[in-house]
Design brief:
5-stranded antiparallel beta sheet, alpha+beta, 119 residues, Beta-Lactamase, homodimer, 41% helix
Chain lengths: 119, 119
């Protein structure tokens, strides 16, 4: 139900490693990995879900409106996260050389399709 | 000592509102604002400093290496944060239509200059 979109996100983005649809409670809805041995994307997602909740709170307290996207670039991996609604987010993990712009674009255009299927 | 760099960041980036050099303890080193009435950049920074600390921890726990950059896009504002070292970060606030790519580029190239002056 979600796997085709998650697979498409990874396969169409240079340097993408995995994608993930998750609730802010840290529970995975579905995920796709180019190489399941390379990265435990669910562990990564559940770590980030806590932080995302706090970013949402901070942004709303600061009157910045609804948080739409968060990107974290670390030495060994870049993570781009698109918040779908108050309950779910979709994330992509990329190699440091990966195409962050393409990941952001695809996450934005596929967000509607994921939301539709979640409801 | 830092103001010239912080001003340059804002003035050279389309849609930039303010910039800030801050410690992870939430204490401002220096800041520059195009319109000081429009945004309390120090309040924003100190809210984000807490979240940034947690992102650093999560990334290091996940073996993703040192966190280099975090970008948060909310409805009314985009924030791009460059982590300088274990103690300090530099951030820029942009209007939603602002040039995030330019902000990321300038923060990266100016990081060295800020680090040099901090030590």
């Amino acid at each position: 139900m979600f796997k085709d979109v998650l697979r498409e996100l990874v396969e169409r983005t240079d340097g993408a490693i995995a994608s993930l649809l998750m609730g802010f409670d840290g529970i995975t809805v579905d995920s796709y990995s180019r190489d399941p041995n390379a990265l435990n994307v669910e562990t990564m997602g559940s770590e980030y879900s806590v932080v995302l909740g706090q970013i949402k709170q901070a942004a709303s307290m600061l009157d910045l409106g609804i948080t739409q996207e968060v990107a974290v670039q670390a030495e060994n991996m870049t993570t781009v996260i698109r918040l779908l609604n108050d309950e779910y987010f979709v994330a992509m993990a990329l190699a440091p050389s990966g195409s962050v712009g393409k990941a952001r674009y695809l996450l934005r255009v596929q967000a509607g399709k994921l939301l539709e299927r979640l409801s």
